[in-house]
Amino acid sequence: MIKLILTRLAQAVPVMLIVAILTFVLMKLLPGDPAVLLAGEGADLDKVDALRRELGLDRPLLIQLGSWLADLARFDLGRSLFLNQPVAEAIVERLPVTLSLAMVAFVMTIPIGIIMGMVAAYWRDSWVDTAVMSLALVGVSVPNFWLAILAIILFSVTLGWLPSAGYVPIDEGLWLWLRSLIMPAAVLALFQIGYLARMTRSEMLEVMDQDYVRTARAKGVSELRTVAKHAFRNALVSVLTVSGYIFSLLVGGSVVIEQIFALPGIGRLLVQAIMARDIPVVQGTMLFLGFMFVAINVLVDIFYTVVDPRVRYD
């Protein structure tokens, strides 16, 4: 197990290095000059040039990249150009919002997606299967930004059940916190529910055709026990693996949802930083999201070997 963890961590290092370099290069391809934006409209060229020298933007790109990577090695993400605070501090302040949104969406996704997949597999090739898979297809096909607008119109404007925007910290009340996240989390989870339902159905159908399932039925084991104990438990390994990937997508997918529902999370911070050309914040935020994605997948790999001892990575 120790060897597996060390191997996965070693493999994550070059991945994070590639993410860092790509983030730096992509920011340089964006139009606009941060020094001009920071100096303000009508600023003279001398002031802009002074800001460029202060920010190090007048140096060659390779030197800028090397300097940034050296700072990363010291766990220094730099300082925001417009927020007047360290990037790491800005990320930490907004991290609870993003994690709360992702966790609520995850709690919605897993049981609903698994149950839908099991129901569709049990009643395969029936109207129930068709109905469930049609709902799953809608979930993976409907753009979440369009669905978010419809949800706001229906549940906030028309019915007045849920707030249309904003975030309430959990220390101000569990229900108020949950009420501020239900609608954006449901919109965020819809795609993943459809994906997980299709995945679960496929795995269940494959397992239910195995010899040991037919043997259990031949021995007179009840259908419910056959499906729940023999079929689902063996299909659960693949489903658990996908669950870690789903959580990663929920964290990354929160960018659009946080912007629409005005949630002060990392996703909204990233969008605002891109609009303001706040290079340190964009680079630090994207690197942090990439790190979370890699870390979650490393944990899933480790958990996979614990759940199914037959699986071993070389």
Please characterize this protein's 3D structure.
The longest helix is centred in the last third of the chain and has 38 residues. The N and C termini lie close together (11 Å). With 314 residues, the chain is an all-alpha fold. It has 2 domains: 72 residues, no CATH class; 221 residues, MetI-like fold (Orthogonal Bundle). Helix content is 78%, strand content 0%. It has 12 helices and no strands.
Low-confidence regions: none
CATH-assigned homologous superfamily of the largest domain: MetI-like
**Overall shape:** globular
The overall pLDDT, averaged over residues, is: 80
Quickly count the helices. 12
Query: How many structural domains are formed by the residues?
Result: 2
Assembly type of the chains comes to single chain
